[in-house]
Amino acid sequence: MNIKYEKLNVEDKEAVFAFYESSGLLVDGTTIDILDSGYYCVAKDNEKIIGAAGYDIIKSSPSTTYLFVSDDYREHGIGKELQTMRMNMAIEDSHTHIHTGTISNSAAEWYIKHFGYSVVRKFRTATVLTCDLLKWKNG
């Protein structure tokens, strides 16, 4: 594997959108406009997109969007690297916290274990988490 990580550039927007569509993550009606090259990062293996992650700004605070890694590339630390990259991007944009929502208990545990997130609220079918970016960075 020759994995390269980078911020999403305009030339890759269509490929990343197609990657997300193939993952089954996108809700019907989602358009390519969800991708803002300033807030997304990608993982590539020899120029093939194998992972992507990003965040949106909601009420002046970053909230994570889709983090997805191709099945063949899972369990190699790619998701951790993409998460680290998007957290660093949020810090570079002067944010102090980042928020995440998930319907997966194992994903919530992953964010807590590897990145120091804490639970804000737990619903019957979802968990909302937050992370103090400066505490994480200085960790």
The whole-number mean of residue pLDDT values reads: 91
Shape type: globular
H-E string: EHEEEEHEHEEH
**Secondary structural class:** alpha+beta
Largest sheet: 5 strands, antiparallel
| DSSP E strands, number | 8
N-C termini distance: 30 Å
The H-level CATH homologous superfamily, spelled out, is: Gcn5-related N-acetyltransferase (GNAT)
Enumerate how many helices there are, as a single number: 4
Count of domain modules: 1
Word description of this protein:
With 139 residues, the chain is of the alpha+beta class. β7 and β8 form a beta hairpin. The protein has one domain (3-138): Aminopeptidase. It is built from 4 helices and 8 strands; from the N terminus they run βαββββαβαββα. The N and C termini lie far apart (30 Å). It is globular. Strands 1, 2, 3, 4 and 5 form a 5-stranded antiparallel sheet that branches. A 3-stranded antiparallel sheet has the order 6-8-7.
